[in-house]
């Protein structure tokens, strides 16, 4: 790989890891044909010339390919991590030395470093923000309000971020438009369901080497993420129960063939408990108290707030030890509860995040949304927007093409039939 230009302002763990990072970024690229085709077009059309993109995303091989795509389109890009545990240090090093993209991220960074890194992104005065969880938007609005007017618009990757942004918009606190990439069908139907479903299982298996077959597994949340995890756990022979608060989703889970239990019922029943709700304290003190000895807990929702870790630490009274890489054991009085990846996103903390083939679509949405913002920001208000349907369809079309599948087009007769109301039986 030729060195284009090494970034000068960065903070990563070890630049010597760059060669391995490049190998892995290129491996991911092979699985990202849609993003590749966008990058080729961006390189010739330069639609992002003069745009300064401040990005706060998981620093993974797939993100590296998104950063390269934006850079190919003419944008200046700076990247910080959206989660202290998800950074792949070799990728961060490769981005800096081989791709000339400033990165501020170190795996395992503490809270202060995490925010210092976000501030480094803000220091480049982005004209466009790209967030995964809304931390960058939130930092700009709360600590650097004078910079908000410099931003044309932003994009947001995940459900939790979109919820926070909608709350800001409802309070008239959102200072610029944001496109909710998560709302694209080619994002959440695939990334949240198939990507998180598979990579959550991957993270749990890498961390524990647990046999899923025959085990009782509780999944809290039956949204797109929970559905994906539940289906994959069942596919491995687990007995799966869903914990929900929404009666429609709970009914759906029941009819999909899962048991439905309350958190309290699931707590005493499960060998493995996985949260994916986007909510806080789903399993808490009273649940820990009735869990089985050896029960394992993991979280795949955005923040490490789904398990009440404060209560867990208090109950363990200091009897906490590392029992495997990414697994801590809390002895809460003759009973040991195990926690993977500190309760942070298990698929990123204990595995590599989503497979590149899925992120291909999510990040194609990011890249095309950025292009859309550059062309249309003058017409957008400070609200949360969904990805335009034409972009969604184009990404699905490109992905189908890349996967060698073809579909039919409506005949003229079928179009007329669907548009008419006169014809019945
Ligand atoms: N791990 C990843 O890589 C990854 C990928 C995509 C999304 N996410 C995150 O996963 C979370 C879920 O995303 P989603 O797209 O499935 O959201 P969703 O809104 O579709 O589903 C969340 C579900 O959780 C349920 N829920 C809320 N509070 C609950 C509670 N106390 N107990 C039980 N159920 C409860 C809701 O009723 C809803 O059905 C979000 O935080 C999102 O940001 C993570």
Report what the structure shows.
- The protein is α/β, with parallel strands linked by helices and 425 residues long.
- It has 17 helices and 15 strands.
- The protein has helices at 18-30, 33-45, 61-72, 89-97, 111-123, 135-143, 159-170, 185-208, 224-235, 247-255, 263-269, 285-290, 309-316, 346-349, 356-376, 389-402, 412-419, and strands at 52-57, 76-81, 103-104, 128-131, 153-156, 178-180, 216-220, 239-243, 259-260, 272-275, 296-299, 320-324, 327-331, 336-340, 384-386.
- Strands 9-8-7-10-11-14-13-12 form an 8-stranded mixed beta sheet, sandwiched between helices.
- Helix 2 (33-45) runs parallel beside helix 3.
- The chain is globular, with a radius of gyration of 22 Å.
- The N and C termini lie far apart (64 Å).
- Bound molecules: nicotinamide-adenine-dinucleotide (NAD).
- Nicotinamide-adenine-dinucleotide is lined by residues 158-160, 188, 192, 196, 220-226, 243-246, 249, 276-279, 282, 300-302, 345, 347.
Q: Biggest sheet, in brief?
A: 8 strands, mixed
- Proportion of residues in β-strands: 5-15%
Helix content: 40-55%
What is the distance, rounded to the nearest whole angstrom, between the alpha carbons of the first and last residues?
64 Å
Shape: globular
Strand order of the largest sheet: 9-8-7-10-11-14-13-12
Which ligands accompany this protein?
nicotinamide-adenine-dinucleotide
Fold blueprint:
Layout: H1 18-30, H2 33-45, E1 52-57, H3 61-72, E2 76-81, H4 89-97, E3 103-104, H5 111-123, E4 128-131, H6 135-143, E5 153-156, H7 159-170, E6 178-180, H8 185-208, E7 216-220, H9 224-235, E8 239-243, H10 247-255, E9 259-260, H11 263-269, E10 272-275, H12 285-290, E11 296-299, H13 309-316, E12 320-324, E13 327-331, E14 336-340, H14 346-349, H15 356-376, E15 384-386, H16 389-402, H17 412-419
Parallel strand pairs: 1-2, 1-4, 2-3, 4-5, 5-6, 6-15, 7-8, 7-10, 8-9, 10-11, 11-14
Antiparallel strand pairs: 12-13, 13-14
Bound molecules: nicotinamide-adenine-dinucleotide (NAD).
The site of nicotinamide-adenine-dinucleotide has 28 residues, from α7, α8 and α9.
